[in-house]
UniProtKB/TrEMBL annotation:
NCBIfam families: YbaK_EbsC. InterPro entries: Prolyl-tRNA_editing_YbaK/EbsC, YbaK/aa-tRNA-synt-asso_dom_sf, YbaK/aa-tRNA-synth-assoc-dom. Its EC number is 4.2.-.-. The keyword rRNA-binding does not apply. It comes from the Bacteria. Belongs to the prolyl-tRNA editing family. YbaK/EbsC subfamily. Keywords: Lyase, Protein biosynthesis. The keyword Lipoprotein does not apply. This is Cys-tRNA(Pro)/Cys-tRNA(Cys) deacylase. Residues 26-143 form the YbaK/aminoacyl-tRNA synthetase-associated domain. The gene is ybaK.
Length: 156
């Protein structure tokens, strides 16, 4: 059991855990989850760590087939600029490995921003805290639990 799943259980949030065998040769973790589990790409969100120009770290969730709009993230966070955080820093800060970073149960709670497309979904999928593990839950539950802000963050 991962910290992400423990957090959901501790807060009695309805969720479903899905597993698949991760292929170590695949670097597109989110796309691998879509294919392996037969999910729609719009419903699977990747968890990205970004650093704002003032040094703050933030979490951004966007659909796996989209690119994070760093300008949109900076604007939503009240900053001028944002850049992707170094992968080593992301792992050290969250307690998860790249490709398995969950927005839930991170070592340090960071401000979280979710692409506003999530609001149109009845359920979405995020990493469960390791490669090959996905969690399905209601977007409203995820947003409320993380006290996340929704904003237009995805570019296709």
């Amino acid at each position: 059991m991962t910290p992400a799943i423990r957090l959901l259980e501790r807060n009695a949030i309805p969720h479903e855990v899905l597993q698949y065998t991760h292929d170590p040769k695949v670097a597109a973790y989110g796309e691998e989850a879509v294919t392996a589990l037969g999910l729609t790409p719009e419903s699977v969100f990747k968890t990205l760590l970004a650093q704002l120009d003032d040094g703050r770290l933030v979490i951004a969730l966007v659909p796996v087939m989209a690119t994070l709009d760093l300008k949109g993230l900076a604007k939503a966070a009240g900053a001028r600029k944002a850049k992707m955080a170094d992968p080593t820093l992301a792992e050290r800060t969250t307690g998860y490995v790249v490709g398995g970073i969950s927005p839930l149960g991170q070592r340090k709670r960071l401000p979280t921003f979710v692409d506003d497309s999530a609001r149109a979904l009845s359920s979405l999928y995020v990493s469960g805290g390791r490669r090959g593990l996905e969690i399905c839950l209601a977007p409203t539950a995820l947003i409320a639990l993380l006290e996340a802000t929704t904003a237009p963050l995805a570019r296709t």
